[in-house]
Amino acid sequence: MSVMWTVKAVGLGVVALSLSVELLGWLQRRLRPGKTLNEVLIFPSELACVERIFNPSSSYTCLCPFPHGVESSFSRLLRYILSASSSLDLCVFAFSNMDLGRAVLALHSRGVTVRVLTDKDYAAIPGSQIGALRKAGICVRCSAGSVYMHHKFAVVDGQLLITGSLNWTLAAVQGNMENVVVTEEPDLLRPFIKEFHRLWLCNDRAQNYRSGDQKPAHHQNP
Ligand code: ZN
Q1: How far is the CA of 110 from the centre of ligand 1 (A)?
Q2: Does the predicted TM-score (pTM) go above 0.85?
Q3: C-alpha to C-alpha distances, 26 to 15, 31, 35, 185, nearest whole angstrom
Q4: Which of 28, 34, 53, 138 is the one with CA 20 to 30 A from 128?
Q5: Which three-class secondary structure state does DSSP give residue 54?
Q6: What are the C-alpha distances in Å from 155 to residues 9, 136, 140, 193, 215?
Q7: Of 41 and 205, which is predicted with more confidence?
Q8: One of 89, 119, 151, 152 is an active-site residue; which one?
Q9: Whether residues 41 and 29 fall in one domain
Q10: Does 119 qualify as catalytic in the annotation?
Q11: 120 counts as catalytic
Q12: 150, 194, 197, 215: which is the annotated catalytic residue?
């Protein structure tokens, strides 16, 4: 008798277990329809021509000396940035990479809303792309605090987070050992969106001047 009960109990346990596994799977599919994008890019990137990314037309032939048709960490990064269709929020300490500058300018001229937050001290270094972005009419705000604005992240269309150790410089892309995580995970995305919003507001120069204490003496009538 007791053996039969044990068999029955084990049988019930197996049924319960398989049901809960199914339920978990169902919940997962329900919460995450489709596969969430997650990718890690390791730098330095393989040296390769990225002209094709800017000129996808098949009739275009590039004559530069770099390898063509090679997918590298840098080409992946460029593709993710250029995938923006409505907005790009960029928060980066140093920005001097010309290809990345070109990508951001291309988005702006395509009508994508671009906002750039950068560090005040590094915005003015030789080769900085910040001047060119401003000249093109892109909204740039500089963090003017006593500590570095050392973030290196971008949010594409409010849905894709690109973050890691990589500054947007040539040295970082081609020389340094760096990492970049590209993810659509909402739990990771949310704090970055929140932080961008916070930094964007607290580095609004017009707001700061209006509040009084940071108004420079030579700008009495802004
Ligand atoms: Zn080329």
Answers
A1: 23
A2: no
A3: 16, 9, 14, 19
A4: 53
A5: helix
A6: 52, 21, 15, 7, 31
A7: 41
A8: 152
A9: no
A10: no
A11: no
A12: 150
The Å distance, Cα 69 to ligand 1 centre, comes to 9
Question: Is the CB of residue 99 less than 8 Å from the CB of residue 132?
Answer: no
Total count of domains within the chain: 2
**Segment 77-120, tens digit of pLDDT:** 999 999 999 999 999 999 999 999 999 999 999 999 999 999 98
Q: Do residues 159 and 184 make contact, with C-beta atoms less than 8 angstroms apart?
A: yes
Question: Annotated catalytic, 108?
Answer: no
Say whether both 49 and 147 belong to one domain. yes
pLDDT-derived band at 214, boundaries 50, 70, 90 = very low
For residue 97, how far is its CA from the centre of ligand 1 (angstroms)? 17
**Structure-token pair, residue 46:** 């393989």
Q: Residue 198 has what DSSP assignment?
A: H
Whether 23 and 72 map to the same domain: the answer is no
- Residue-wise pLDDT tens digits, 134-188: 999 999 999 988 889 999 999 999 999 999 999 999 988 899 999 999 999 999 9
204 Cα: distance to centroid of ligand 1 (angstroms): 40
